[in-house]
Amino acid sequence: MSSDKVRDFGSTQPEPDPGEQERVEETKYGAPGDEIFIDEGPPLPPRYGVDKIRLHVQDPTTVCAQWELTGDGLDAGRSMPHNPHPSALRLELTDLTHGCSMLTDVTVDTDNWWFKAEPDTEYRIRIGLGSGDKNHWIAESNVIRTPRNAISDAVDVQWMVVGEKFLELLRVTGFDEESFLRQTMAGSMGMVSKHALREALFSGAMFSGALLSGRVFGSPNLFGSAHLFGGASDREGVRR
Amino acid sequence: MSDNNPSGYLALVLHAHLPYVRHPEHERFLEEDWLFEAISETYIPLIQAFDGLLKDGVDFRITMTISPPLAEMFADPLLQDRYVEHIDRLIELCRGEVERTRHMPEFRDTAQMYLNHFKSARDVFAKQYGKNLNSAFRKFQDRGVLEIITCGATHGFLPLMVRREARRAQVAAAVRNYAKHFGRVPAGIWLPECGYSPGDEEFLQEEGIRYFFIDTHGVLFGKPRPKYGVFAPVYCSNGVAAFGRDVESSRQVRSAREGYPGDTNYREFYRDLGYDGDYEYVRPHLHPDGVRRNLGVKYYRITGQVDLADKQPYSVKAALETAATHAGNFMFNRERQIEHLAGVMDRRPIIVAPYDAELFGHWWFEGPMFLNYLMRKIYHDQKTIKLISCSEYLDEYKTNQVLEPAMSTWGAGGYNLVWLNSSNQWLYRHLNEAEDRMVELASEFPNADGLVRRALNQAARELMLAESSDWAFIITTDTVVPYAKKRFKEHITRFTRLYEELKAGRIDENWLRDIESKDNLFNEMDYRIYASEPARNDTSVKIH
Question: Given Cys at both, which of A191, B53, B151, B387 links B61, Cβ 3.0 to 4.6 Å?
């Protein structure tokens, strides 16, 4: 079973553009010209002799897999009767939330892979050898959950928020379009184009007129669904 | 004078952290200057501001992280003595500068300011607080005006630690270290890089921590929807509180473009005597390699969008007047913000304004004076807002909404991009494997003593030092990359050798003693904080 919810980016990504926080913070570590030595330290262990694959979250729509496989693990796979392809590794990224998966074949000298993912979704990845629809899995990763990137449509009955007031709180928070895109992954990872953002915001389908006269402060994903002020939760406040 | 019945509250939060940098094997070491510069430009000016406020009877509140590596460096005799040598060199330089600029009216006041500044810094450090700045901050905490919170033990970035035991250990070690330096359990924690993943609150609750901070979208994307946005804390399901960052107050202070630090009257960070001065004149004050670097003596102001060569002379008086104006503007904006919020909330809102502490003083030279003016103005000049600590707010509002905050950080993009990208992803295969191995060691040696125990404790230290988020950050921002790589590799290779020696039952005591003397933080370390948990789905497993 495959899915169009996940796609892979390959083994490299564009270098990130540090934000304002980073530009200020980096000054406390001196400056590149300060360095005189080119000693980058002792060599790291090239391998640990394990069959392991691990999965990491980069942001709501990107996850990264890293692995190490031993010769023993690979030899065992290659000896399987269905004769898997000897020069490729097979990755199976499984979307545990929606119950679908995607197969990707990579060269044996690769040791990491980036995947496009869905927000608020659980994933696990397996690695092994495969040929056609026959697979021999060697290692399975930890389970991760990508972050939510939207305001929840669940509302707590005991902490009910009147729609207009919630929108006002968001405005006071400073969530105009520009700051939202800067402050969250929505903009920098291209989840939502500004055009699509404005289209959705001004369609009138999702928001009240009060919002339309205010600053633009979110993405369609920001509100998750059309049930902006609906839904309920059985969560209650606690007293400590 | 600020009112006892304010419309809302402002929580100022400063996150003070530097990685553990200590090189006894060298007489002078360049990267130790990170600490020395921050002491002179940030920590001591803050201490002076706090002391002045107390002396003048100003009732103020501020929250500060003192990260465990920073607390350990403050308490380290070698670094204490080296700071005195460092400040003495600067005082000597500035005595020369006062003489050199005697007939240069555009510079002489600034030269005198630096001489006074460094001399008073030396007095505060060596005479007033006995070379240990922990005692200064502890004093303010004991006086009830400062709430010191902790951080991850070595500022390890929790969202990318696969093993729960590794995340738990960062919190547990931090709390033990805090108790050593400040004599109590911390009320709050600054999660390194403000990096939170759902479930981390378990470790905080286990250690008696009452609250943590989270970036704006961590609260706004919480489930269910937060009734008060970021203007009231929320409880995680276990009762640990999360306070969300206010975007507007952050932007006003933090942004070099839109914020106060970019004002043309403020000191220009990138114009320094170390580069401007005649080489033979500055040479004795540079590091032994003789390479020109910042000395911390800067005579120019930002001026505007001009080349560095066209910057205009700095005026202390004009800069301080500007800082006072900005403090007034910041207070005015918070008053309007609170008044506005009071109209849409049925409780007193809290604006949480967290900043990197080193922004104040090191990057924004006038920043400590801005805070000084701000706290005085809030106390004397208005009645709308009051400064508060997060503990005090939780005491006033014990009932808060329960929700699950969303995973978030305060880095660019709001998630893990800064600490996980193509330039630094290679760190994690080593870190994650070392974390697995440390948990394995803690299981294999549940009650070690003697030499084995020392080796296990040192293995825990080496792992934690490798976990410092600073290394991944430096690689991403492309600043002092060779040093970051060297440090990371040294700690991983030391850990790996300890692991192998422990597994083989052959510990080289001489070598162990050597690395114990170099990586000497956390003498209270107990490796058993890595004790394994029942199997969950957070580990990689071999199939077949």
Answer: B387
